[in-house]
Structure formats: C-alpha cells, structure tokens
Design a protein that fits this description.
The structure is a homodimer. By secondary structure, chain A is an alpha+beta fold. Chain A has a domain of about 160 residues: 3-Layer(aba) Sandwich (NADH Oxidase), CATH 3.40.109. Chain A is about 45% helix and about 10% strand. In chain A, strands 1-2-4-3 form a four-stranded antiparallel beta sheet, sandwiched between helices. In chain A, helix 3 packs across helix 7. At the A-B interface, helix 1, helix 2, helix 3, strand 1 and helix 6 of A face helix 1, helix 2, helix 3, strand 1 and helix 6 of B.
Amino acid sequence: MDGMTSPTTQQAALAARYGAATPPAGPWNATIAGMVEHRSVRGYRPDPLPPGTLETLVAAAQSAATSSNLQTWSVVEVADSAARAVMTEVAGNQQHILECPLFLVFLADVGRNERMGIAEGKPLEGTPFLEAFLVASIDAALAAQNAVVAAESLGLSTVYIGALRNDTQRVAATLGLPPGTAGVFGLCVGYPKAGAEGEVKPRLPQSTILHRGRYDASGETAARAAYDAEMSAFSQRNEMAADTWTARVIARNGTIKALRGRDMLAAALRALGFPLK
Amino acid sequence: MDGMTSPTTQQAALAARYGAATPPAGPWNATIAGMVEHRSVRGYRPDPLPPGTLETLVAAAQSAATSSNLQTWSVVEVADSAARAVMTEVAGNQQHILECPLFLVFLADVGRNERMGIAEGKPLEGTPFLEAFLVASIDAALAAQNAVVAAESLGLSTVYIGALRNDTQRVAATLGLPPGTAGVFGLCVGYPKAGAEGEVKPRLPQSTILHRGRYDASGETAARAAYDAEMSAFSQRNEMAADTWTARVIARNGTIKALRGRDMLAAALRALGFPLK
C-alpha cells in the first residue's frame, strides 16, 4: 500500500508486540504498522475531534462485514454528562469515560429487525436463539474494530470498555434501549493525555495462538513461562505491580466475585429481550 | 495519514456505501478508504500468498484489543483438502472455502486459560459463564477484523464464513479442538477471480445505526423503505434476484428452518465445554 515503512520500523514494531518471540517479517505497510502499534489509552485531553470524525468512524464501522447483511448492531453516542457519569459508575469508576471527547456504546441489536418483521406481519422466528445474539455481538465487534482502526489512523486513541457489562440493564435504561438491544461494550475516542499512551503491550507468541491444521496445545506451557517473564518486565517498566500474565488472568477470572456482576449477564440479556435459546 | 486521497474518491466511496443517504465528508485517508471500499469476495484464484502473509495477518490480529488481556481466542489455519471439504460441506457447499489459498477458523478459546488455572492449582471459577464465551467471541472478532483490514491493505480479498456454525461440533472434531474452544467463524483470504469482486454493498443510512444520546427508532421505517429501493437496484445490477433488504432479512431469520442448524448452537457449545451460565 505504501512501501515507505523501513524494515527497522517493522522489526521494532514486531519486537514491541512479541518481545523475544518475534515472528518472521512478512508483507508490511502503513495500515498494518498502525494496527501493530495499537495501545489502549486510559487518559484523554478534552480537545474536541475534527468535524465529521464521528461520521467517518461510523462509515468505516458500517463497511465491516455483517452476517447475511442483517446489520444487527447499532451505536449510541453518549455526550450528556449525567449519562457519562452513569457509564463511569457502571464501569468501576473509569475516569476516561468522563474525560474523552467521544464516547460510544456499541449495541447488539436484533430489535430493529424484530420490529421490521412485526411491521411486515412476519414475526421473525430466528431471533430468540443464542445464534442471533452471537451474530449481533460479532457484528458490533467487527464494526467497532473498523472504527478503532480508522480512529487510530487519524492520530486518535481509543479504549474499549467491556465493564459496561457489569450492569447491562442500567446501561440499557440510561440509553433508552428498546427490547432486543443491549450494550456489549463502550469505546472512548480522543487525544491521549501526556504520558497516557504507554508502551505497546506484548502478546502471547504466535505459536500459542496460531494452530496449523489441528489445535496443538503442546507448547503452551513453555510459551506461557516466557510470556510471563515478558509481561512481568513490561508491568514493572510501566509502573504497575510486576505481576505475571498468569497471575493477572487468575485475578481476573479466578473467582465469581472478580466478574463484578457479569456472572448475571445471561439473566440481564433475557430481561432485555434476548431469550438466548 | 496520507493526504493523497482526493475529495472525489472520498465522495465516490461514501456514495457507493450509502447511495442517496451519503453522510457528510469528514476526515479521510488511505486506511479509511480501504475499509469503506470493502467487499466480501466469494470466488478465488489458487495463487499462493506472498511468504510471511499469514504471520503478518496474525500479528495484526493479535494487536487488536483483548478484554483484560485474557487473549481468549485462537485461530486454526486449515490447509488439508479433506478438512477443507468438511468445512465446505458444513457451510452449505460454499466452494470458495475449497478455492482460497488461505482458510482460517477463528476460535472462542477459554480452554487455554482453563488449562492454565488447573496447572496452577487454581481452577478458574469465572469461565463457565456466558460472559466468558461472549468475551472470547468478541476477542476473536476484533482480532479477525484486524486480519481482514491488513489483508485488504495488501490487495487481498476476504469473506467471513459464519455458516461454520451450522455444525459447530463437526468443525471442532475436524480441527481437534480441546474443551472450552469452538469455531465462531471462518475466513477465506486470497486473490479474487475475475468478476468475483463485485460492487460495494450499500448499508442502512447512518441515521438508522447511529443514535445520539438515546436510542431513536422514529425514522427507521422511512429509512428502511429508501434502503430497500437501494438494495433492490444493487441486487439487480449484480445479477441476483431484485429482492428488497426487508425480503432478505425475513428469508434469513423468518423461520427456524432458515437457521440451518444454528438453532442448536447453545446445545453444541455446551457439549464443547461452554456451560453458558
């Protein structure tokens, strides 16, 4: 696409992402470099975005694939400060939700097509199933990721807010969501505060994530040990506790309490009109 | 990011995506143009991809955000022709699965972290919940979309294969998936056959998808009528039946039979080790 990226930059970007387990360098361009250099940002300046930015992000989002062109997602821009305060509280007091100039909530939305079916005298039999909720959530995720790539290509930063699922019903009530819709995650967009951008976070080696032909877990314990060392050093450099990745996963998923209400997600979705059959 | 895209190109790209409901032109660059010009391609030449392409796509995929850095997704490259034939059959005989030089199956994978918890003597209490499956599916979708954007930026085409969920258990058996993993969709990658690229598919107007402050369904019926006319003309131009969007959604979701087995998804996932509590 460009040819302007130097091999050094590519090597450095891959090394930042993978540490010692850097994969071989393949094809590369500025779009790919932008994605590989992604970091989630949790501190924003109040500076407004250029006019038309939201419409461009939505155009990118809508251009992602959507299952059978059903388009079972929507997005709500939340500008009102009282509504932002609710979102911040639901998400465990994440202040960047209040700070960022643009805050979006992406919805799984089967309600729109359900309303259409009723209006046409053909109520949709297919929407009460888990499949419909999954399709809607995947549609929303594909759309959101295009918006993220678009935002970052414009020099903006982002962070997803999965913690809106701590209280999916309160989010729905605050945004006036009709039946068959639910917020699956939020997204902050804006310019990072000084120091908020941080380092690229290392990921598990490709050998752990990418399987050839059949799933192969044989190398995962050794790969995890190496990654634990990478993540411990990364955490220490970034002034967090020098935890291993293993310790963090156990902290996050080890107990029901750590889910902070998300153990009730199925019940919340059923109350919002997703039977999940 | 570039500044080389002309306003004409931007206007044309937005018009192709939205028809008469083209939104105002905001910030723009080559990365965004690439996304807005996306089309799913269902016919591939056998030409192999440049060396290192898969590793680059996986690097882009792993660079997407992942909830709490849990990284609960994996991807299987399916090269074996017998396995490709199974995938093709599961997906209702979609020949492009056999044709494309690279076929990937993206997995929701909580099994890896479950194995870690057991190995550490701390079985994870958080993984039997619907939340864990949803996080894993969203992780997989964000990763896959980065791979798609990366592939398309390299001049490759793609199409998602959601129809692998017609028989999630057969896909799992074919790929040797361990408990706590399931294929959520496939992805074809390659060079389009002559004539297979097609037109950009119009989407619903932004007014239907993007809500300001609160969900607002008041304009959706009028917007749908306009979109039905756009889609009917699009379908006719592309040698398909001149169906409206409304007719297609009803055909796809109107009956349980039209789900082609996906009404059994919840049962299939439970059998694969996702209790979905």
